[in-house]
Amino acid sequence: MPNEYESPIGQRPEITGVVIPPAPRHDPYAAFRSRGFRFFTTGNLLSIVGRQMLAVAVEWEIYRRTHSATALGLVGLVFAIPIVGFSLPAGHLADRISRKNIILVSQIFSSVTSALLALVSWQHLAIPEMSILRACNHGLSAIAGVFEQHQQTFHFDDASIPLIYLLLFLGAIARTFSWAARSSFFPTLVPRDAFSNAVTWNNSIFQIGSVVGPAISGFVVARRGFPIVYVIDAITSFAFFLLALPIPRAKQTRERADQSTWRSLAAGAKFVFSKKVILATITLDLFAVLLGGAVALLPIFADQILHCGPVGLGWMRAAPAIGAFGMALIVAYLPPMREAGKTLLWCVTGFGIATIVFGLSTALWLSLAALFGPVISVVAGGIGTIFVVIGSALKWPEIRKIGALDRNLR
Q1: In a 10 Å sphere around its CB, with 0-12 CB exposed, 13-18 middle and 19+ buried, how is residue 108 labelled?
Q2: Are 241 and 106 members of one domain?
Q3: Residues 42, 175: one domain?
Q4: What digits encode the pLDDT tens for the residues 168-222?
């Protein structure tokens, strides 16, 4: 008897091959196939450019009129208070009413505040010395005296300073609501399979605006003055309003009316603390930005240490975004990132080293190299892109509010 039995040909089972379909080709421009996303991205880019131009100009103007580091810190505080105080309510509102309407209203409001800021800057010498403005300046001077006892060279004698702070605060409130609506509006403009690509490009657009805006602002301030920059910001905000008008309203599932605002916010906070990857990412970003950021002091470096004026200030403000944009392009062209946690740790390490080099530098070229240097700083600049991709591309079934696709695109 043979060792191996071979069945007759007619009794052999038919063997069919399994055809494995080829993996879909990665499309780096998948999000731009959507008309609504193109309109949104164009308007968003213009708005970001104007916003970055305004930030550079107003910091330089405040410092030149007060020569106070505290005044610069107060500019950052005026920008930060609305973000801290209104981000959660703004996100909750974006889950309940039309996000497109929020964007439209906030852009109009932002455009008006920028136009008023241009008027105040242009006519700052003609503003009457009202008692309330004088009292505000005395209060600002007292605050500066507490933090700058070693160097009493500051002065708060311009009546426009309190008005500038007020308009910046109002504009920051409008932009906080606008950003909350934008972050959950743009994902609804693309198909589900293009979501990760849209997130990456959305962050890339922010980095492009962060490069172009400050660089242009420095030249405009040096040649045309501060009011022109504020007018440009007003125009770009209104342009975003016009570009957002033809975007179709996406289907949006609204929350139940019986769910309280505080209960919804508490659920969001509980979700963040229950997801270790999100909590670790936010904490890492918080310490890197809060303790390692030197952006608020750049006007002092430009004036007293590097002596490069508004043009150099613009380039220093643009430098970190150049590194971030370079990394964003790489992320956009590559498939989803693996081992993102280790990459984050290396990015934060590079960010710290670059910040130390910048703090010790007394030469413009070295300061710029520390901010967007060839290796370390470029990787560190991409940390924001990695944060956004991780935070937005992950998909959980429990709670997804701002930026959620589980309910909005289902």
Answers
A1: middle
A2: yes
A3: yes
A4: 999 999 999 999 899 888 888 888 878 888 887 888 888 788 889 999 999 999 9
